């Protein structure tokens, strides 16, 4: 069932739950959450969610692109955040700049100042992560923390470790779920899609559109309406809109769960971030943002942007990937593993055929994934 809101048709399930947050979900399952603001070096005000636990065992969670940290708790008692909290960990979840309640700045207005959206995953790794890590370590009086990054949430750690190598020593272990770094082994249709999205992103930036998929956009309610329609909505969404993530299996992402996902998904993303992802595809290199030869010379002292030196990423990294992942492919993840100097665990889920989204939304991750994550965390505590 849909209702009309400001002239748009929105599923009633989404209307009734549209104020849902990480905190309200945690409270529903019996956990108190502290909501904290973290200010970055360049003035962005990020929202951090904290489920108190053993302060000697802090764990930082980072979501993927177009996602809010609630992806780590929306499955309730079968979610990663609740599993960690139940196991006694001090759980911290960060929304990077521009996402959810991290849509703030000390000077800039995200609705009026296009400069607010002048960032990609580079700034997430270079500014957002150091601010969050230092904040947590100061609050816990610890020297190190563990981290779990999903998709672009672990891309940020490769940026951090290579550009601010001193932060490698502040990470006990980083668990990389469905890692995104190299994008050279995509299926042709997925590669074409990401390339076209990047071209569109450049066109939008040229006319001053710097934010995509905000709450006032036409696309967001369209996605929500299409993907939550009974009957055709499930197939249309999983086989059409979400085709890039890999083949869907109803055992993991069941039809009745889709309305819960689309309460807050997709979240805002900067046009620049979309373009940067496209550049990684087109240039076949994991490199900093390409501004064009002239501006590159001014910024990088070279006509081409520098590659991120993954040899500097000395933190311990445990990699988990799905055999059915359309974005984090086996070939690209093997390239990443060979470049990183300190991969301590590498696990391919081949039998379960997990796709890219299953790592955060899959119904059976408490059976397949979490029993492997917890021993890794324990080993490096």
Structure overview:
By secondary structure, the chain is α/β, with parallel strands linked by helices. 37% of the residues lie in helices and 18% in strands. The protein has 15 helices and 13 strands. The strands form 3 sheets. Strands 3, 4, 5, 6, 7, 8, 9, 12 and 13 form a 9-stranded mixed sheet that branches. Strand 8 (145-150), helix 5 (152-163) and strand 9 (171-177) form a beta-alpha-beta unit. Helix 4 (121-140) packs across helix 5 (152-163), helix 6 crosses helix 10 and helix 7 packs across helix 8 (232-241). Mean pLDDT is 91; it is low at 1-16.
Topology:
Elements: E1 2-5, E2 8-11, H1 12-16, H2 22-28, E3 34-39, E4 44-51, E5 54-62, H3 80-86, E6 89-95, E7 104-105, H4 121-140, E8 145-150, H5 152-163, E9 171-177, H6 188-206, E10 211-212, H7 219-227, H8 232-241, H9 258-261, E11 269-270, H10 271-283, H11 293-300, E12 317-322, H12 330-339, E13 343-349, H13 358-361, H14 365-368, H15 370-379
Parallel strand pairs: 5-6, 5-8, 8-9, 9-12, 12-13
Antiparallel strand pairs: 1-2, 3-4, 4-6, 4-7, 10-11
Cα distance spanning the termini: 48 Å
Query: How much helix is in the residues?
Result: 25-40%
Number of strands: 13
Main sheet record: 9 strands, mixed
Classification by helices and strands: alpha/beta
| Beta-strand proportion | 15-25%
Total number of helical segments?
15
């Amino acid at each position: 069932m849909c209702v009309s809101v400001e002239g748009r048709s929105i599923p009633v399930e989404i209307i009734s739950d549209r104020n849902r947050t990480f905190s309200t979900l945690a409270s529903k399952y019996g956990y108190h959450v502290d909501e904290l603001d973290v200010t970055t070096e360049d003035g962005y005000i990020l929202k951090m969610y904290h489920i108190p636990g053993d302060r000697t065992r802090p764990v930082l969670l980072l979501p993927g692109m177009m996602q809010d940290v609630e992806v780590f708790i929306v499955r309730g008692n079968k979610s990663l955040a609740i599993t960690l909290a139940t196991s006694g960990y001090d759980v911290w979840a960060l929304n990077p700049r521009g996402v959810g309640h991290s849509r703030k700045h000390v000077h800039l207005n995200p609705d009026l100042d296009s400069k607010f959206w002048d960032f990609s995953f580079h700034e997430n790794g270079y500014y957002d992560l150091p601010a969050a890590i230092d904040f947590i370590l100061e609050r816990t009086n610890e020297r190190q923390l563990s981290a779990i990054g999903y998709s672009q949430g672990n891309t940020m750690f490769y940026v951090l470790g290579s550009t601010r190598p001193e932060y490698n020593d502040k990470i006990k272990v980083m668990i990389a779920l469905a890692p995104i770094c190299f994008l050279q082994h995509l299926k042709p249709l997925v590669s074409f899609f990401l390339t076209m999205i990047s071209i569109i992103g450049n066109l939008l930036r040229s006319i001053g559109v710097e934010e995509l998929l905000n709450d006032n956009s036409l696309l967001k309610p369209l996605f929500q309406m299409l993907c939550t329609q009974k009957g055709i909505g499930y197939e249309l969404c999983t086989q059409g809109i979400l085709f890039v993530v890999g083949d869907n299996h109803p055992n993991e992402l069941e039809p009745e769960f889709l309305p819960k996902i689309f309460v807050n998904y997709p979240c805002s993303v900067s046009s620049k971030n979309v373009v940067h992802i496209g550049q990684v595809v087109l240039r076949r290199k994991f490199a900093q943002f390409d501004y064009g030869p002239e501006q590159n010379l001014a910024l990088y002292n070279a006509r081409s942007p520098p590659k991120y030196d993954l040899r500097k990423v000395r933190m311990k990294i445990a990699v988990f990937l799905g055999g059915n992942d359309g974005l984090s492919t086996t070939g690209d993840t093997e390239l990443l593993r060979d470049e990183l100097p300190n991969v301590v665990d590498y696990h391919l889920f081949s039998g379960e055929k997990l796709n890219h989204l299953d790592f955060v939304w899959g119904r059976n991750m408490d059976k397949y994934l979490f029993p492997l994550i917890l021993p890794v965390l324990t080993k490096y505590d």
